[in-house]
Model the fold of this input.
Amino acid sequence: MSQVSSAPDARFSDFALADPIRRAVEEIGYEQPSPIQAQCIPPLLTGRDVIGVAQTGTGKTAAFALPLLSRIDLSLRVPQLLVLAPTRELAIQVAEAMQTYARHLPGFHILPIYGGQSMGLQLKQLQRGVHVVVGTPGRIQDHLRRKTLQLDALRAVVLDEADEMLRMGFIDAVEDILQHTPSGRQVALFSATMPDAIRRIARTYLQDPVEIRIKSATTTVSAIHQRYWQVSGVHKLDALTRILEVEESNAWIIFVRTKTATVELAERLEARGYACAALNGDLNQSLREQTIERLKSGALDIVVATDVAARGLDVERISHVINYDIPNDTEAYVHRIGRTGRAGRKGDAILFVSPRERHLLRAIERATGQVITPMQLPSLEAVADRRMAQFKEQITEALDAEDLSPFETLIADYQREHDVGLGEIAAALAFLVQKERPLVPKPSEPPAPMASDRPAGRFRSEEGRRREPAAARRPARSDGTEGPAMQRYRLEVGEVHGAQVKNIVGAIANEAGVESRNIRKVSIHEDYSTVELPADMPPAVLQHLKKVWVCGRPLQISASDGGAGAPPRRKTERAYEERKPFDAPRKTLSAGPRAETKPRKKAAGSNAAPAKRKARRD
Done:
C-alpha cells in the first residue's frame, strides 16, 4: 500500500481528463484542484485503487467523479460505475454533481437509487440502460436480490463516506455488494476516519491501493473574528452591500468560486459606487501586480478573487475577508481568511452560508476546531445611521479645513432673493450632494442571479416586501382572486417517474426561492406535470429550474398556455392551491413543504411493520 503525503501544485488542465469532462470543468470555472483532487485524480485515471482519508468538505466528489467519468464507455449502456453513499441526500447530491460534470457526454445516463423512491420507476430506468448508478446500500441490495441490477460490466466502485456507512450499520451490506462485483474492477474508498472494520474491507477488496491522507487545518489565526450569515430573505448582493456600508473597515477581499463570478460581482459593486476590481487566473502577471498595487495604495478598496488568484496575497490594508461563496474545501477556507489578521493585526472574516450548505459550515468548524458565530444582517436603519454619520463627518471636515466665505455670500444672497430659511437651503444642498446615495436607502429589487449563483432568497427583500403598497404586493390575477399574476408551466416529470406534489413544491421552493404560497395548482399527469408560478419570474431563475432534478429527471420547465385545450385532470392529481399560506417565513429551505393530504386509514388486517423495517434498511 503506497502513500501520498502532499498535494502537487497542479491545475485541472494538467490532468488527462476526457475532453468533454475538461470542457465542463472549464465552464464551471474550476481553476486549481483541492489537495484531495490533486492526489486522487492521477491514480484513478490510470486504474489504480485508492484510499482517500479526508474530512467532509474537501472536494471528494470531484476527486473520484472527474477521472472515473473520463473512463466511461458511452457505447455500452450498462452500469460501469457504482457509487455507494450512506444516505439518500448524499446519493442525490453526488448524482447531481456527476450529471453536471458529464453535461457534454452524449447520451450519458446516471440513476440515483435509494429507499422511499418508486421501485417501479427505478426498474424502468434500469431497463432503459444507465452508465452510472449512485445509491444507498439497502436499495442496491434489493435490486441485486431481484436481479434487476446487473454488475457484470462494472469497471469501478466508489465507497463514499465509508465510516458513516459503518456507523449506520451498512457495513455487511457493503461487503455483500462488493462480492457481487467483478474481480478486476477498480475501487475507491473515501472515509474521514479508518476504523478497523473499514481497514479490513480495504485489505480484502482493494488491490495495492494508493493511500492519500489529507490533513485538515486545526488552527486559524486567533486574531480573526469569524462570523457567518445564513442566506435568507435578502439577496446575497444586497446583503453584501449592507455589510460593506456598516462594518468599520479599511480594505476587503471577497472570495467567489469561479473566474466568471469575480468579473460579474466586481462589475455590480462598481455600479453601486465601490472602488472594486476582479482578481482571477485569467489576469496576466502585469495586470495582477497593478491590481494589487492599487489595493495597497488605496485606489481600490475591494478585490473580488478566486482562491488561486489570491494565493500569497499580503496587503496590510485588508481588514475584512468575505466568503461570498462558501468553499468546498476546508483548507481553502483557512487560506482565504488568512489574507487578514496578519502580523498580529486584527481581522474579520464573514461567511455566507445557504441552508443547503450548513454541512460545509459544520465541516469547517470541525476541521478548524473553532466555532463560527452567527451574525445578524445590518438593517436598512443601520445603513441609514451609518450614512448620516459619515455625512456629518464630511460637514465637520469641510468646516475645519476649507475657506467657505464665498459660499456663505452665495447662501445669503439666495436667502434674501427667495425668502427661505437657512435650514431649507441646507436640506436642499444635502439632497443634491447625496441624491446618488440617499441618506435613507430605499429597498430595491434584487438583481438577477449571477451566472455562477444558484438563486438565493425571494424575489424581493423582506424589507422591500413590507414597504411596498399592498396593491404592488398582490396584483390582481386573471381570475379575480388576490395574489400575484400567475403563469402556468409544464414540467417534464410525472406520475410514471414517481413524482409527487411535495417533490415538485419542495424543489421549486428550495431552488428558486419562491414562497410556498406562490406555488399553485400542481397537477401530476402520467408523464408530465403542470404548476402555476408568479408571472414575473426572472429568466435566470427559470433557466436554473430547467436543470433542477426531481425523481431522477430534470424539470425542463417551459411555459404552458393552460387553455381550453389542456388535458383533463386525473383523479390522482392534487391541487396545491388549497394549502393555507404561511404567515411567517420559513426558517430553512433545506426541506420542501409537505403536501397537506390526509393520511389513508390503515386497512383492516394490514401490517405496516415489515414496510417500516424495509424503509429503515434503505
In short: DSSP finds 22 helices and 21 strands in the chain.
